[in-house]
């Protein structure tokens, strides 16, 4: 009996190396195919409105049809990709890797996967992080985007979803659709690296050397003071282009500053306690499947202007910036910022 085709779906929770994984895979579709792995290439660019019209926002697998943010949205013809996969030699693999942006599972496209399971052995791979670190990193990314989130962290949809369901609930729909592999993001990164690890898991070990030699997308990291300024500016309706220029000044300052940046944005104590309580339930539910490396945040939140040295250095840097409008915007925001609640 000929071996069945395989479908490996990398469930890329945001802030778990998904952009690096997808950047590497998109640039090596031909090499992957030579090793019996089909990775669908992106189709033509489409607008955000088209994406939202075709795909419900609360669908856990909405990104089954497009590339993740911050890439320009694309639609991928998966019916065509699946048909091509079936024409590949027996035992070949269809590899999908997309960010699970919405974190909801009620509308998971079970029918499509049910049909796919008739011809493919389906396996899901997901990298999980200690939630206190993961959610803080995710929230930081949202705040630092021009059109992103600027409300308090307890209102961020990922925070709400985690508090309601935990990792065990978020992953439940996929357990019903196929085999689910859970891996500890922090341990993998500290070991062979996220991209080489995934390549080994999907049978593409021949590409590991290229993955180790590649340079990866570096996530911009901002101090609590800078995030406070960005939140305030967006709440005040700043024009997106000016916001980007303000952020560029922060990036330049951070690149030249010798001070090692501290922990990422910190949540209020009551929110941290709620996340920890849900995490305790997760630890019990996921025991034996994955043990996540805890990267604990500090015990106390850091109020804005807690470090005068940093603020003075940033103010001095901004004063010499060529972009006087962005510099003036930062100075005004610094004067008006209120402390981050603890």
Explain this structure to me?
- With 342 residues, the chain is an alpha/beta fold.
- The protein has helices at 18-26, 29-34, 48-54, 78-87, 110-116, 131-143, 157-177, 185-190, 194-201, 208-213, 224-235, 240-256, 269-285, 308-319, 324-336, and strands spanning 5-12, 37-38, 93-99, 120-128, 179-184.
- α11 runs antiparallel to α12 (240-256) and α12 packs across α15.
- The longest helix has 21 residues, at 157-177.
- It is globular and about 75 Å long.
- Residues 54-74, 101-108, 297-305 and 338-342 have low confidence and may be disordered.
Main pleated-sheet profile: 5 strands, parallel
End-to-end span in angstroms? 63 Å
Number of strands: 5
Mean pLDDT: 76
Helical percent range? 40-55%
Count the domains: 2
Strand percentage lies at 5-15%
Poorly predicted regions: 54-74, 101-108, 297-305, 338-342
Helix/strand/pairing category: alpha/beta
Strand order of the largest sheet: 2-3-1-4-5
Instruction: Work out the helix count.
Output: 15
Radius of gyration: 22 Å
Order of helical and strand elements: EHHEHHEHEHHEHHHHHHHH
Morphology: globular
